[in-house]
Amino acid sequence: MERWKINLYTLWVTQVFSLMGFGFCIPFAPFLFQEMGVTGGAELSYYVGLSATLPAAAMAIAAPIWGVASDRYGRKVMIMRAMFCAAILLALMGMSKEIWQFMVLRAAQGIFTGTVTASMSFVSANTPENRMSYALGLMTSSNFLGYSIGPFFGGILAEMLGYRICFVIGSLLMLTGFALVVFLVKEDKNTYGFRISASREQKGSLFKAFTPFVIVLLGALLFQRIVRTVFVPFIPLYVQESLGTVTGAATYTGVINGATGLATAVAALTITRLGDKTDKLRLASILTLLSLPVTLLLTMTHSIPGFLAGYTVFYFLAGGAEPILTSAASERTPAAVRGTLFGMLATVSSLGAMVAPLIGSYISAEYGLRMILCVMPVFTVVQWICMATAPRDKDGKKGRKQKEYETDQRFFEDDRKFH
Question: Average pLDDT, whole number, for the chain?
């Protein structure tokens, strides 16, 4: 098997473990807060929003720095750093006694982790251009598959053994993924370091990478992240409010998170395959338009089964659009600075994940939980407008893509022994 495939499939498995690790515990943080003594409705909503905002804000600042470092020193070491730090921090979260301790650790999580970004960056730089959508779609599926399995079993274990033990299990899963990266993943040394400094073709590419087309796509991804995350931190409270009791809420929360994660994984494995065969931007625009009526229906849903069905369909459509947009941005960026690109993508995603809980917290405190759902169709329309107004490269999509593909192929051919 070719080396790039071995790396891809290994990282797919490690990211399943990684997101399972987070999914085992993070979705149930609101219930842990209540164990710590935070029981007031407004106060609880505040800390739920803060818990989601802190890591996102920290990652927005740290991600570009790690992205530049990955271009310089390699992407494998960045994956190892992210997974090892995540394992330590999850274990410490499970042992935290005060709410402020948990919040400090969540901020540290945003600074020192970022397994998804590190893995995506590795794959984008070590995969042939004509298989990029497939590779990024596969990686996206691992993220959401892991985050569907984690909350499902985490919710069951939380009801049986308590919320803290779930953080320990999450830490152990993260260490397992770390070991797989150490022993099975091999990085092509031509994709970082000296390649960037030695190649005349890459001079000034750091600035040329962010073309108007890529910048507009970053805007579309920002609004999509807001749509996808604005309600996520409040799902446990929504379920608890719908049930009228905390009993059983963790199980239902796990089922909802599991179903939406699985739907996104299926979309990433199916819809994204079309990205290598058709116009990526047009395909992402269609998926976004299809998700608009679904978000409108969610605002009129009054039952947990109805919410589960609608939210799952929405995540299926959104789960197909995000990797396609990411692939479209990646194929228009020189391979040597894709770590920087994915650092910026992580910053954009983090900004969305930071703003969304703040919006949700304000609306929840002022108007109630259900009103948060009303902002989803609004930002969906804004996301579609961004994609509809995206400028095209002057040399045309086909010419640019072929040029990038041929450039990458030369580097793969020059390093036959590595493969």
Answer: 83
